[in-house]
Design a protein that fits this description.
- The structure holds two protein chains of two kinds.
- By secondary structure, chain A is mostly beta strands.
- Chain A is built from four helices and 21 strands.
- Chain A folds into two domains: 14-36 and 227-344 and 350-370, no CATH class; 62-224.
- Chain A has helices at 37-41, 47-51, 75-81, 102-107, and strands at residues 18-20, 24-28, 30-36, 54-56, 62-74, 89-98, 112-125, 131-142, 148-160, 164-174, 183-195, 211-224, 229-236, 250-259, 263-273, 294-296, 300-302, 311-321, 331-340, 354-365, 368-370.
- The longest helix of chain A is centred in the N-terminal third of the chain and has 7 residues, at 75-81.
- By secondary structure, chain B is mainly beta.
- Chain B is built from five helices and 24 strands.
- Chain B starts with a helix and ends with a strand.
- Classes of the chains: A mainly beta, B mainly beta.
- At the A-B interface, strand 1, strand 2, strand 3 and strand 20 of A face strand 3, helix 3, strand 15 and helix 4 of B.
- Strand 3 of chain A pairs parallel with strand 15 (297-300) of chain B.
Chain lengths: 373, 450
């Protein structure tokens, strides 16, 4: 008879957890990217750090720039060091030197190259009169074995223009194309400035400084050397993939990658990290452990290429739980090795080069649980 | 994805003109004076006035027990819960799963006799709605896309209201045969009709592709919708000028019946109801045709991933699909629609040793396209006088086992008619939602002998 069945009483609520596509569902995921050198270095959270040193020129080529101080001296100090300033005199600043450090300096250590190196030398003059200056400019580059690979010197003389408290370029030099190491020694040897009488009284009223300043701006493009090799185990500890709630047991990913970077990347292993247990204040956080229950297929080799001839790789990647379902992924440990493509030596990198996922799809087996409660 | 599919499914609708089921139990009640409703050959001696008989009929070919499952620990889970096997859930579904409700409200009914003829005149308001979902929708949700090609076309839904003015007569041809007929004028009031004529869904690893063609007919005495600047029907912009209070459709239908009493105590009834159609004039008539494909998000950028804007990308895909489902106005504004007809066959026999006790059989076939059904019942009735009669019956059909009971009771010149039929299987507590497939009908009316 049509009496009510208490087992179906809705007033106690319904468990709304649902599991969809219990046999299998294929999902076209689509194209992603490009993930470029520019976007990862300059537009990521690291961007503020790198943007100080790395820029992209009008042709889209990556540039590294760094300013390196050579010498600065206050006019009052110059006058104080002289016994008699009532007539014009020559101030002997002596030997001054600096080197190119920072990111450009590190490129060689990473297997990268400095290409098309250019140097601009800047100077400022706070006085109301021109100041002749003379020095012997010396540039020396060393390779990783600290052997000199480039050495040059040139007599440099100039009239520092009056009222130039903002430094301006007094000399520029391009290093030979085959020099791929940065100058570690940049010397202004026997630097002399021809000062007028009573220089303090000649400080310009419309300048904001009373300092003579010399520095050089080094810029270069970035290239990958033929012997580039970068084996690395990378820990991604803030993955934050909260997929445990969906109770997935197996997921097959099909990805077609297009790589315009001249690097082939071999991923030897991808392992899921277990969450790190909370530690007390002052205690050292333990190393995250790998979750051996989750298996991600490897190795994977991503072919390198160039903007003209991208490397295209079809990848099949499987993520599966040996038992139960795939938990939240808090972190990954990726063992990879990036090596250069042959023929990439001396070719500068563009900011637009990177990896582009042309198409991708996922095949999920065993259902997707959606907790609606 | 689930929302995406459900949104599609919610739009799948079937169309029929509403027709409430007649008060079948009345066949067994000698005191029921409105028998011409299920067979126009039936008549009542003298004049009878009936006001306000109300019949509410709900039919569903799947019940809530197909979608809800109690567990051993007292919890109630849905059919999509992982503990419910695909065989259990999908095995309980029909190819087309539908709900149909129709209400018939009798404004008046007057029957009288003149010469050898018995006449009747009545006015009714019919209203109803129906909706159906094909099994494939649930199959996709439960199992996934192990099959890649799905045909979800041919389904639909409707909601309609019409007024009916019926004029009938019956005549006794000889001592054992009576024939009758009724002509009905149908006036359309409101109608919504959505038909999916084509819905091919292809799910593959590379692409989801939907080819959808649909027709929408919408009319109302209250006005019609304007079009937007792109020429599509705009459902948020209604004009009240053009169709104010005008009928939306007109049609004709007829009932035919014959009653035979070949031997004393034996009655055989055969009738066909609602043979006809209605011509609707649609204030808005539109056609939608689109091929939409989804092959993943387009160039999801690294910046958007970092910003967590992936959901926004999928929203764009959804908007694109729903945008494609918009309706262009059609040139054709009229459509002739057949009224679902019903065939009734009944026989009853008054026992010779006690004529007040009758036994009988009835059968019925209702043609409603994909929602057609048939049903057979066996019943018994006790009619001790023309003022009192009770009946009970049990039967089976496309909605499973069904039982019914009815009463007619007269006090002076008034007759109260009450009937109920329902299925077995129970309901969800504190609701009227049946747990099994069901054909439920409630009738309540009052007549007056003039």
């Amino acid at each position: 008879m049509a009496c009510s069945d208490e087992r179906y009483d809705l007033s106690d609520g319904i468990n709304k957890d649902i599991t969809l596509f219990e046999e299998e569902i294929s999902v076209p995921v689509g194209s992603i990217g490009p993930i470029t050198v520019e976007s990862t270095l300059l537009k990521s959270s690291l961007g503020e750090t790198f943007a100080e040193f790395i820029t992209v020129d009008d042709d889209g080529i990556l540039l590294i720039e760094s300013d390196n101080d050579l010498y600065s001296v206050n006019v009052h100090r110059i006058e104080a060091e002289q016994d008699d300033v009532s007539s014009a005199f020559t101030y002997e600043a002596g030997d001054q030197s600096t080197g190119v450090y920072g990111i450009a300096y590190l490129l060689g250590m990473l297997g990268l190259q400095c290409l098309e190196q250019h140097m601009d030398f800047y100077a400022s003059n706070p006085l109301k009169v021109d100041v002749p200056v003379r020095t012997n400019l010396v540039l020396t580059c060393y390779n990783q074995d600290y052997e000199p690979v480039y050495d040059s010197s040139a007599a440099l003389s100039d009239n520092l223009k009056k009222r130039q408290s903002d430094p301006y370029v007094i000399y520029s030099v391009d290093l030979p194309a085959d020099v791929r190491d940065v100058p570690e020694y940049i010397g202004f040897e026997a630097l002399e400035l021809d000062m007028p009488a009573n220089p303090v009284s000649r400080i310009s009223d419309d300048t904001r400084s009373d300092i003579f300043k010399f520095y050089c701006r080094h810029s270069c493009k970035i290239g990958v050397s033929d012997n580039f090799s970068f084996p690395q185990e990378v820990n991604i500890e803030d993955a934050g993939l909260e997929i445990g709630q969906y109770k997935l047991s197996k997921c097959d990913l099909s990805i077609v990658l297009e790589n315009t970077l001249p690097l082939s990347v071999k991923i030897d292993s991808i392992r899921v990290l277990k969450p790190v247990p909370a530690v007390g204040e002052g205690e050292e956080e333990p190393e995250p452990e790998c979750d051996d229950n989750i298996v991600i297929s490897a190795p994977i080799v991503i072919a390198g290429g160039s903007p003209e001839n991208p490397g295209v790789t079809e990848l099949k990647l499987q993520i599966a739980a040996k038992e139960g379902t795939i938990p939240d992924i808090h972190g990954l440990r990726i063992g990879l090795e990036a090596t250069s493509q042959t023929g990439c030596d001396g070719v500068p990198l563009a900011g637009t080069q990177g990896i582009y996922i042309q198409s991708s799809s996922a095949k999920i087996s065993g259902g997707i649980t959606i907790p609606l409660n | 994805m689930r929302k995406y599919i459900i949104s599609i499914a919610a739009l799948i609708l079937a169309c029929t003109v509403s027709n409430a089921q007649s008060f079948q139990e009345g066949f067994f009640l000698d005191g029921y004076t409105l028998g011409y409703r299920y067979n126009p050959a039936f008549y009542t001696e003298g004049s009878v006035l009936s006001i306000g008989e109300w019949t509410d009929n709900t039919r569903n070919n799947v019940g809530m027990a197909t979608f809800l499952y109690p567990t051993e620990d007292g919890e109630l889970v849905t059919a999509l819960h992982e503990s419910i096997t695909p065989e259990t859930f999908l095995g309980g579904l029909k190819e087309d799963n539908y709900l149909n409700r129709s209400v018939n409200f009798n404004l008046f009914s007057y029957a009288w006799k003149k010469g050898d003829f018995h006449y009747n005149l009545e006015g009714n308001i019919r209203a109803g709605y129906s909706a159906s979902l094909p099994k494939e929708i649930f199959q996709i949700l439960k199992l996934g896309s192990s099959e890649t090609n799905y045909n979800l076309s041919g389904a639909g839904a409707s909601a309609q209201a019409i007024a009916e003015l019926a004029y009938g007569f019956s005549r006794q041809v000889n001592s054992w045969l009576t024939v009758g007929g009724r002509a009905k004028l149908l006036v359309g009031i409101e109608s919504l009709n959505y038909q999916v004529t084509r819905f091919d869904l292809v799910l593959s690893e590379e692409q989801y592709k939907a080819t959808v063609e649909a027709n929408l007919d919408l009319t109302s005495v209250n006005g019609k919708y304007r079009t937007d600047e792109d020429g599509y029907i705009n459902f948020s912009d209604k004009s009240y000028r053009d169709k104010w209070k005008m009928p939306s459709g007109a049609g004709m239908a007829m009932d035919l019946g014959v009653v035979a009493t070949p031997v004393e105590g034996l009655t055989i009834s055969l009738s066909a109801l609602d043979l006809g159609g209605i011509l609707w004039y649609y204030g808005n008539s539109g056609h939608s045709s689109c091929v939409t494909s989804f092959d993943g998000v387009k160039a999801l950028s690294y910046e958007k991933i970092k910003a967590g804007d992936i959901a926004g990308e999928f929203k764009e895909v959804q908007d694109q699909f729903t945008g494609n489902l918009k309706f262009k106005p059609s040139e054709t504004k009229t459509r002739l629609e057949a009224v679902p007809f019903t065939l009734y066959l009944g026989t009853k026999y008054a026992l010779p040793f006690y004529r007040a006790l009758e036994l009988g059989l009835t059968g019925c076939y209702n043609s409603r396209g994909g929602m057609s059904y048939k049903e057979f019942r066996a019943g018994a009735a006790w009619n001790p006088s023309g003022k009192l009669g009770v009946t009970a019956n049990i039967g089976t059909g496309d909605f499973g086992l069904v039982y019914g009971a009815a009463l007619t009771a007269g006090i002076q010149k008034f007759h109260l008619n009450v009937g109920v039929q329902n299925g077995f299987g129970g309901t969800v507590p504190y609701t009227s939602m049946p747990l099994k497939a069901n054909n439920k009908c409630v009738t309540l009316g009052l007549t007056y002998d003039i």
